[in-house]
Amino acid sequence: MHTELTRDFERFGLRLPRAFPDHVRETYRIDLTARYLGQMIPHPVGKGSGQLSLNETQLAEDARAGLAFVVLKTVIAQDEAGTQSMAAWAIHETKMQVEPRRSAGGRTGWTVTWKGRGWDRSLEEYLALVRAGRDLTRAGSLLVVPSVKYHLPRLEDPFHEAEYRHTTRLLAGAWGEAPLLVEKDFSPTLAGDSLAADRAQILRWLREVPRHIRAASPVPVRIAVKLMNACFDDAFQLEMIKACQEVDALVCFNRLFDAERSVAYGGWDLSDRNLRVLDAMAPGVHPGLSGTGNVCSGRMILEYARRGCESVQLHTFFQLPLSQYPATQGSRTQRALHALVFHPNDGLIAALLELEAAGGLERRGGELRFLDLTTDAHRAG
Questions:
Q1: Is the pLDDT at 378 greater than 60, yes or no?
Q2: What is the 8-class DSSP label of residue 75?
Q3: In what helix (H) or strand (E) does residue 228 lie, and over which residues does it extend?
């Protein structure tokens, strides 16, 4: 198996086939099938919301590369008059800066820094992008999910129902059939904002926002909430998870916030905290988890999966300098997938085979199944 994996690693570094999950199943008897928002996907690797998912060219390139899913750039909800209560997040992006970041534990990872926040173009342009994503999804090329930042009131204030209603209905119309899939973004910059200084206020959002989205949608809707890392302790992160009782998926957890520089960041500090909190979560508290944060290897995918995550979302790893990828040809998405899946030491195939050899995962029907990891996690904790 190791010899075969090394051979695949070398040849796929020149050209990664789009249908590589089929090759993995035929060659290694490993089923990489994963899940996001209740949708079955060919493998667990998706692209998180951000600068890498804001136009049709990017979506088409990711579909050709064989990516499993993409979450679109976050649109800021508005009412019929075009008013946005969260307009402070509709800021034009500055150029992204990819840079190394040393963690508190002494490990050096990568982070991406930029000053922008959400979608800063018109809602009509966003709906056109949603329709393009819908077509790719229906063709089976790439699962595409819109992301929205809706109004978040202060504790004593009501929700702006008009924003929820107008934006959700337009998204449903652009998607065209049920169920509508939506990711609700609690962005990392929110953690450093005065809005998020009150714990009770945050918990109210998590309990009530999904209800308002469902009430606003003219069709059945599946909701994922991308949870931020609040500027509180681990115990509060667990409270946030427990508050999300009315959602279909949780993305755990958005980037950390550097108050001194007023920027969000990732790297090893992020994955250390995310995995630590997931470890502390009681088994079966919430199905439908999707992991995010410093997903830099197949082994890290495995770490999230063993804590119940049925898929992972990446952003930084798709933006590294080309010298950091072992592949010498292809788009950054292809090069990232090549490293994450086929690296003979740190790739997902190698990690799954190693786990099998250690007795941590058994074959069923002659196959190792990625989703069995998450099932065992929810059962055993």
A1: no
A2: E
A3: none
pLDDT, tens digit, 9 for 90 and up, residues 170-218: 999 999 999 999 999 988 778 777 888 899 999 999 999 999 999 999 9
- For the chain, the farthest-separated pair of C-alpha atoms sits apart, in whole angstroms, at 63
> Is 350 within 8 Å of 300 (Cβ atoms)?
no
Locate tokens 């998405």: which residue?
A: 333
The C-alpha atoms of residue 274 and residue 45 are separated, in whole angstroms, by: 17
In terms of Cα–Cα distance, which of 26, 63, 60, 66 is closest to 43?
66
| Single pTM value for the model | 0.94
Q: Can you tell me the distance from the alpha carbon of 317 to that of 297, in angstroms, rounded to the nearest whole number?
A: 9
CA distance 195 to 178: 33
Domain housing 320: 2-380
Structure tokens at 76: 């800021």
What is the average pLDDT across 150-174?
95
Give the per-residue pLDDT at 1: 87
**Cβ-Cβ contacts under 8 Å for 7 (sequence gap 6 or more):** none
Q: Where are the beta strands (DSSP E) in 253-361?
A: 256-258, 263-265, 289-292, 309-314
pLDDT, tens only, 287-304: 799 999 999 999 999 999
End-to-end CA separation in angstroms for the chain? 30
315: Cα separation from own chain's centroid: 8
Say which CATH number the domain at 40 has.
3.20.20.70
How far apart (Å, rounded) are the C-alpha atoms in residues 194 and 154? 10
Residue 381, pLDDT above cutoff 60:
no
Q: State the total domains in the chain.
A: 1
What mean pLDDT, rounded, does the chain reach?
A: 92
Specify the pLDDT at position 284.
64
Of residues 101, 207, 97, 103, the one with CA closest to residue 152: 207
Give the Cβ contact number of residue 310 at 10 Å.
28
- 357-366 contacts, C-beta under 8 A, 24 or more apart: 363/29, 366/29
